[in-house]
């Protein structure tokens, strides 16, 4: 079935100018146009992430080079998709109406709406039966970040020891489960209130970041994954084993300098990876890996709270506090 332009209006979150959470409104807009290679998704859930907040605020300034210099190129925010295929373009072969799918609208946001149209070869996969739409939306963002860090950057091996700083957040909760699945010994750093959560996800050891400074350890870890980018290679160097790697999600002059210098005398090094900028085919392949790992019972979503689309500004305000455990899910009306 091919869907062309329809007269229907849909509800969507809307950002016309960069600024604080108050700049987001919910309004009616036109139903997206579905091209011959596109699928139309009836959205059930999406998620609000820290990068979404950074894009909304254009902070740091550099995000404007990706999202629009003066104002957002795409006024509908959000990348994570979870919903049902409503209609497909005439050339589409991978999906059929009624399929439950999850994935991302990358490279452009547009997910925070009742309907989304994206190409069938986008990073989209059939949702495993075990997932509900909220979990599916949250896992998409976290997995597409955590997996390339652990598999491609750290090249994590069975028996290695990894410390995950920010273990209770969206990416951290998935990184703990993945690292454990890869056979590593996992040390999770979080607040005491989240210790039980990360232990349940597979962490062997939990460090309370408010009482213990993990960087004082001596040659303890093959990999330090600083998910929240709150530490630095310099601070973590002693805690790394010879040949170890410090990985961060967050750009800074310090990590760029560390990358420029390369390995130190003991073979230790620091690296920033930008998984958000990976190619669509790579993300699409990883969506299939994610579906498989969920089916095998390796990965579970962690949901902090579920909020309605009308509370999107409040959700951004909450996510910016950096206190959530797991994901903040937006349910579509
Ligand atoms: N490089 C890339 O391509 C890329 C891609 C996606 C995301 N990112 C970045 O990844 C980062 C993490 O994202 P996320 O979605 O996982 O974050 P998140 O879900 O917002 O993380 C929240 C968690 O961080 C912990 N936390 C807060 N302050 C901390 C601190 N000072 N030290 C250690 N932990 C702290 C808190 O847990 P506790 O209180 O329990 O510790 C909270 O549960 C963001 O900065 C995002 O921009 C980068």
Helix content percent band: 25-40%
Number of helices: 9
Which ligands occur here? NADP nicotinamide-adenine-dinucleotide phosphate
Number of domains: 2
Largest sheet composition:
7 strands, mixed
Q: How much of the sequence is in beta strands?
A: 25-35%
Task: Tell me the series of helices and strands, N- to C-terminal.
Answer: EEEHHEEEEHEHEHEEHEHEHEHE
CATH fold name of the largest domain: Quinone Oxidoreductase, Chain A, domain 1
Q: Distance between termini?
A: 25 Å
Over all CA atoms, what is the radius of gyration?
20 Å
Contiguous low-pLDDT stretches (5 residues minimum) are 1-5
Question: Mean of the pLDDT scores?
Answer: 96
Key traits:
2 domains; alpha/beta; Quinone Oxidoreductase, Chain A, domain 1; Rossmann fold; six-stranded parallel β-sheet; 27% helix; binds NADP nicotinamide-adenine-dinucleotide phosphate; seven-stranded mixed β-sheet; 333 residues
Task: Describe this structure as you would to a colleague.
The protein has 333 residues and is an alpha/beta fold. It has two domains: 9-139 and 301-331, Quinone Oxidoreductase, Chain A, domain 1 (Alpha-Beta Complex), CATH 3.90.180; 142-276, NAD(P)-binding Rossmann-like Domain (Rossmann fold, 3-Layer(aba) Sandwich), CATH 3.40.50. The protein has nine helices and 15 strands. Strand 14, helix 9 (312-320) and strand 15 form a beta-alpha-beta unit. Helix 3 crosses helix 8. The longest helix is centred in the middle third of the chain and has 21 residues, at 133-153. The radius of gyration is 20 Å and the shape is globular. The two termini are 25 Å apart. The chain binds NADP nicotinamide-adenine-dinucleotide phosphate.
